[in-house]
Design a protein that fits this description.
The chain has about 55 residues and is mainly α. It is about 45% helix and about 0% strand. The protein is built from one helix and no strands. It has one helix at about 5-30. It is elongated. It starts with 5 loop residues before the first helix and ends in a 25-residue tail after the last helix. About 0% of the residues are buried. InterPro entries: ATP8_metazoa. GO terms for molecular function: proton transmembrane transporter activity. Belongs to the ATPase protein 8 family. This is ATP synthase complex subunit 8. Keywords: ATP synthesis, CF(0), Hydrogen ion transport, Ion transport, Membrane, Mitochondrion, Transmembrane, Transmembrane helix, Transport.
Length: about 55
């Protein structure tokens, strides 16, 4: 059974993970998230509700 011989498959598996780890993280880190809006400047008026409790 050739699939039980780890010789060539181990090298292919390790080399593919090495390539993925070298190429994918820089591509993901190129995307910069949007800066969140400062919520302290945007305040809405606080209106209290009068609940009609029985």
């Amino acid at each position: 059974m050739p699939q039980l011989n780890p010789g060539p498959w181990l090298f292919i598996w390790l080399s593919s993970w090495f390539i993925f780890l070298l190429t994918i993280p820089p591509l993901v880190l190129m995307f910069k998230p949007n800066n969140p809006v400062n919520t302290s400047q945007m305040t809405s008026p606080l209106n209290s509700w009068n609940w009609p409790w029985p």
